[in-house]
Batch of 3 targets.
Target 1
Amino acid sequence: MRFGQDFLGVGIGLRREHYDTLWDHTAAIDFVEVLTENAIRESLSDEHAPAFVRFGGRTREALDRATLHFPIVLHGVSLSIGSVDPLDPAFLDATETLGDALRARWFSDHLCWSSAHSAELHDLLPLPFSTEAVDHVVRRVREVARRSKRPFLLENPTYYCDVSGHRREMDEATFIRRIAEQSDCGLLLDVNNVYVNAVNHGYDPRRFLDALPLDRVAQIHLAGHITTELDHDGHTEQVLIDTHSRPINPEVLELYAHVLERTGPVSTLLEWDHDIPDIDRMVAELDVIRVTLERVTGQSRPT
Amino acid sequence: MNLSQLQRTLVAVTRGDAPLESGASDLAVPSHRLNIYRDFVQGHVTAILDKLYPVALSTLHSRSHRVADFLRAHPPGHRDLNLAGAPFPAYLDDRGFAFSASLAQLEWELFAAAVHPAIIRAPETGFALNPSISIFEQFYPAVQFLVDHPEPDPTHPPVDQPHPARLDAPQVALVYRRETHAVAFRVLDAPTARALSALANDSVPDDADLDHTIALGVILRR
């Protein structure tokens, strides 16, 4: 049990590319993660329909089928927990309804913001490491938790620039710790994001991990990233970009082992959202994760 | 700078409404790092237009300029990225690209049918109208164009071909999703029009019209 949640084993995101093939691999995949925004949406075709409806078509068929084969967790990208705009109660209600329908174990979103001042950016924008941001996010996480009967996890996102400016009041790990502890939420630890941030901002990822409240980690994300070169003042800087388009970097797997040594087995999801390979390749990558889980914790499957 | 001011600045910079350099200076961050977010934010909308409107976009010169102009005219205001692309047909029409607008309208309806929340299933007894049906008028032969160009052909880009002439009278296009999840589209034919009209008047369609529409998947019967 992690933060009161079962160890679900290793899983993948439910993606359209695998709607036809996923079902032949139910023994190799322990759970699936459903992207909230892929499963509910504002009605496009009926002005009398509820504000948010579940998808029809192949997505709905796949969701219904997934509930028969796998434990499901929900993961969102648009809650915008750090936004200065009000939380969207219709979206929260729709997420809860979806969670009920899928019997989702928990739901998660990112410690960031994606919309503000009525503008939607559809990306994960960084928060400053400030007391104002801590207090703001804590209030909103508590509101989210009040509206839901299932646990809420916050994910540590990547950030490509530190927007704390000259008023940085704490480091990133302290920022996450304070929010998690004051709001009493769980954490979805994205180990690839830790690695990407550590390289891009020049810090020691192990020291960072050790400073997190790892007792609150109920799920882990692993993914691949790319390296890009950016021109800046006549110099070239190498920057890692979290693309979810590659196999897991070996150094990320080492960090994953570092986490597992401190936590024991944690439900672990392979994220692959761009250039998605076929299901056989996904399962092969899951096996790599499973080997690490088994080696470090002695357990790679849920009991 | 408080949280609200910070988010207002980042919104303006990433949408291209404020200069990158001044935004970077205000936020005390390197401009090349801030530019990553600008590329992400604008790239998401470009990608969704590519996904929703591949054929309509293939009929336009200065495609990237057109996408950037659309973003300025219709900044996204909804969490669903697909909805950010919803105004594209109207945008094209406003800019005088009437044929491309017809194509875009058809492509949007194809997407809407694919994700329509209804379960498309024949009733146990009797028959029922397919709930995913969308019917709309078009003054350009977009349906035939999409039949002829289901995917943009890079060796024969539609942008280099003359656009069809405006029709004297509008065509009625019919889009719907079949039980198999495949999305179908066609110009509304006379038997289907008669059957739909009969149903709208709470009447039973003629047998021949009924058989025709059941074969198409417009009316559902086991």
Target 2
Amino acid sequence: MSEHLLEVRDLSVDFHTAQGTVHAVRNVSFHLDPGETLAILGESGSGKSVSASAIMDLIDIPPGEITSGEVHFDGLNLLQASHEERRLINGNRIAMIFQDPLSHLNPVYSVGWQIEEMMTAHGMAREQARARTLELLQRVGIPEVETKIDAYPHQFSGGQRQRIMIAIALALKPDILIADEPTTALDVTVQAQILALLEELQKETGMGLLLITHDLGVVAEVADRVVVMNAGEIVETGTASQIYANAAHPYTKKLIAAVPGTGEMAQPLEATKPLLEVNGLAKHYGDFVAVEGASFTVLPGETVAIVGESGSGKSTLAKTLLRLEEATSGEALYMGRDLVTISPRELFDLRREVQMIFQDPTQSLNPRMSVYDIIAEAFVIHPEILPKAKRRERVAELLSHVGLEPGLMQRYPHQFSGGQRQRIAIARALALEPKLIICDEAVSALDVSIQAQVIELLAGLQAEFGLSYMFIAHDLPLVRDFAHRVVVMQAGRIVEQGPVAQIFDAPQQDYTRKLIAASLSPDPEIQAERRQARAQIEGVA
Amino acid sequence: MSEAEIIPDTPHPVRTTFGMLWRDKFAFCAAIFLCFIIFCAIFGPWLLEDVATKQNLRGRNAPPFDFSRPWYFWLGGDALGRPLLARIMVAAQNTMMVAAGAVVCSLAIGTTLGLIAGYTSKLGSQVIMRLADVIMSFPSLLLAVIVLYVLPPSVFNLVIVLAITRIPIYLRTSRAEVLEVRERMFVQAAQVMGASSNRIIFRHILPVVLPTLVTIATLDFALVVLVESSLSFLGIGIQPPEITWGLMVSQGRAYLTTAWWLSFWPGLAIILTTLSLNLLANWMRTALDPVQRWRLESRKTSDE
Amino acid sequence: MRSFLGKRAIASAISLIGLVVLVFFMTRLTGDPTDLFLPENATQEARDNFRRLNGLDKPIIVQFFNYVGDLLRFDFGDSVRRNEPAIDSVMRGFFWTLQLAAVTMLLVTVAAITIGSLAAFHVGGVFDRIATFFSLMGASAPDFWIAIVAIVVFSVGLGWLPTSGTGTVWHWIMPVAVLFIRPFGLILQVVRGAMITALNSAYVKTARAKGVKNRPIIFVHALRNAMLPIITVIGDQTTAILNGAVIVETIFGFPGVGKLMIDSVLQRDFNVILAAVMVTAFAIFLMNVLIDVLYAVLDPRIRY
């Protein structure tokens, strides 16, 4: 029927929701050949994951409904195949790995059992499966396989869990591997390792790899061809370098332009009296050292980025400064007053000056309060800011500052999109007229194009009000474009700090170099260079 | 859906709720039946007191479905010739008052203690939890029997006893929820703004916890109706000449073989009421669960 | 694990002590057993004699400490009514109740887990709707009413089953069946809810992508994850039965500990009440420890 390994034709999927029917996927067609890596690139809600779920029979019906299309694999139209036929293909011929391996592994069974099950479900004997499991775990780079085979998912690190997922998926040497955002929640250095492993395994087995991602960097790193999706439709198809160099569709252009890491780097500010001066700050949880000996300063009007991988202590640092956690030792002088030791009374006044923007606006806004209530809460708590009569006017003003229609203030957070919610959170922080705002991964949960808009807003507000930012992030290209100075943290300690140009152009520490080399550029050519740099660092180490 | 798009304004919450109720026909019928029972509980004694207590020796154990008699005899008459339907409607008041009183008291006290236990020092929390343990390990029927043996079995005392036995449920649930909700980011955001503990508890945590508690209260209402009926049935609840459904079942027990309807109808009233409450709680659980909610929302197929 | 058990034991001991103190003084409030045991025209001398024999002549505080002293020697006192050690009456009754609880809960567990899991697999399907409706019916059923209706139908009407006693298997059918209904309804709902959550989880998606068959997906992947809340509610329901299936025991003349407790309150047989409370509380403590061990067995993330 079809000369391709996998061919999707005219696929359309609807979802029936409270707000009516959502056409999640509309007339999507693409194909995959053996040994090839096809990336489906799109932002949240583009329908990229739904297309893959349709191939694997993973769409819940209802609320989902496949309204048209064919999926051809090995002479069979999967959409018309019986449940049993599809079950025999799943795992055996087409396997899948997912974002967030912790929740995708069954928490109550050992990883060995879960890998063996892939084989026993398709008819292999248990003993044979166990031998093969040991082999697989070794192949994906899990140490001490003899003991680790009986360990449970929560006993592994994030990167190891994704390796285990890969071991499960490749157990029966499938013809196709579908990888749905396989590296999204992982640290950059781990991401690079996982992508390298996938490439290696693909070379070994000759399988087709269908990679679903929102990250142009991942595309540049591994993809042969790219399908760009937006709002359920394919807007553009081509090779990775074609798409990057000569994007034809305005959406693709916008997406590429939004990728950070290519702009001018900021010049350091002139030395003035610091707004915040942190000296030897430490936070221990029992024997665990979360932060140790953290010292840095933030000048008025300056953006200081704190970068590091998960577990580096950067969020704990922020919480300690805001007294959401009590520091173990050290001081943090804000305009001469020590945030760590001042009385609750004084702290209450200081709350106005130091504010925070959280990572996930869905969770940082109370779902049962209207936007007006959320923002005006600042005035209720600190009534001296504003007389009651002027609150409505001020909330409207704040909303227009952050680029939202003031008329929407009676609505509830769930009625807004992710980017808009983060704008509401920014308006809330601004209501108290702070001098310093701590942004804890404030744009990490947002799509690239939205990320760019929010960063632009933050930069504009800084210029207008002379705000200082402590910008906590793991995404180096973003930091490169936005920060004046960068503080690099690893395992609770500051390993390097300096002006942004110095950190990115002449990093002093190996760890910083490793971080920079591991971050992905959307340009396939730059990516090829970085890959070499990475190989060198690994060779040295 | 592109990111810039704003989801259209949702219709008025009362209309949405009604719409979701209409989608679940069982829950809709349950709600209507409960409205009827509440109506009986409020106005029943006032309208039918005389009819329900008037003895009529010629109508003793009158069989049901005799439509030639007045409507309140359609379900038959009891051993003293009093109309069963009217008596059931009058008895609704005592049954509902005891259940509502017990549920409201235990909900209020249990939630308050749970909020305190969840949001204060470890010591206070420990004391409250141990207290809850003692109540939980006290066989509830035994407690009721002892208390009602000492104190007269009035509506008020019954409410107190039943409320005490139900407090731990709300206490534990609200405490567990508070422990979870207080770690959420919007609570931290309020802390960063300098919000007081009171403000955080009542403005941020309570509204999030309340739907769960209301669902439990609805389920509990059904349970309390059953427990009250059991107590009346055992003869340690409300005493004659006051009436409750449980008491009516108990009084009819002697005539089971000759006049089954004496026990049957009040029992049916209990079942229908508790079933309605359970159906409503079941609906609430779905309606309040963002993952399951779509099942109750209308499917518009038009393009928007 | 050992320190966890120790903590559990201490917490339970505290609540048990609280319980004993409460029960001791509250039962004393119900009045003097002398009036109930001796005929109304008994002489003052006979009354004093009776009081002295049973230690009722001393101040209540002294009585309490005497009782505690005896307890430390595992002496639970004698039953006034039965002329035997209180603990003997209690153990006899408890043994019957334990058997009743074990048989009932075993049947309930098997039925509720099987039906609930299958219902959750096709949420909103015909099987699910029927199962949900029956579970709600079960949870709403007034057991005393079901019991007397069952007696009328099966014993009086059809003559198939004996009305009371414990002699043969036939004697067990009605008590177990009536006792079965409510826990079945409640547990079925919890199973269904927990299984819906588990079946919607990401690891089930992985299992489907692996090509695992539906039956292992339900009963191997999802069920073990759903077991924690299920075990909790099974424990709660077993506790309720152990604390006294009073209604069923009373109606079917089943000589269990619940009936014994209530009878002893009415007869002011204080030692029996206290012994019964302690024995059931201890049994419930053991069961809760067992449940905690089961948690750890089922979920490797739980370690004490």
Target 3
Amino acid sequence: MTTTTRILTVDDSPSMRALLNHALTTQGFDVAQAEDGMAALDWLALNEVDVVITDINMPRLDGFGLIERLREGSRHRDRPILVLTTESSEEKKARARAAGATGWIVKPFDPAKLVAAVRRVAH
Amino acid sequence: MFENPILPRGMRPDRGLAPGGARPERVTVMQGQALVSNDPNVEFSTVLGSCVALCLFDPEARLGGMNHFLLAEPPANSSVSTVDEYYGTYLMELLVNQMLAKGARKAHLRAHLYGGANVNRNMMRIGSANAEFARDFVAREGIELLRSDLGGGNARRVDFRPASGQVRCRTVEDRFAPPVQPTTRPAKATGDVELF
């Protein structure tokens, strides 16, 4: 028996969320969306998810803060978290890694590569 | 004469933008670029044929930005639309992120859109598709679009003063809009994945 992989996408851009939703749902993933880190924490408090894909630059709570908050507790300590960002600096990539990110994907993303990464970290 | 500043109704633009009456420093925004400034001495300028320019302005931060793009057909493995929306959304996000990094707030952003003319019969479809993409992006992001001058058959020259939000758009002879090719993703911008 197979179960659908559930993904939470976190990005303050509705356009980017729409692209992610299209790229992932057409490959059979179950996708939920949050507009920033705070909305993601609220959603994750009530729902289960297999993979989180998050932007870095967001209002209220950015991607770094979201990763740190999720890693603080036991519930999401091992949850795969992929960062999807326009940032290209090695310093920020290192910061995401230190905070506990599982992977780093640079925009503009390639749908096929994104899907492959999600499948790889989801199991 | 500059008209149609990107300001909320009732707010007046600054006049005499360059201190001491000096002529502003004109900075050309080339295809593929996104520039942001709060310098009252700066004027962004660009000439658009089929290309599209998005001008953003935060009237509270007194900060503006302009980009200039012509998206290519999407990759062969994509069925999203007639232009490369993945790359286009990325280019737009670069401009928005530069604005936010310099102190703008997304809820304050106001937009103007220019270009997307059908100056070249062979590129008619791509020009119209780029204009449609830009309109859709601004609408999806919830950014108030104060003015758009898109489509038609003439090239345009756009001058934008980022610190005041003043915009001047004039039609120009097509010869001033040199033929351009759509911007395709740089070879390095392939969405590479690095797992830690």
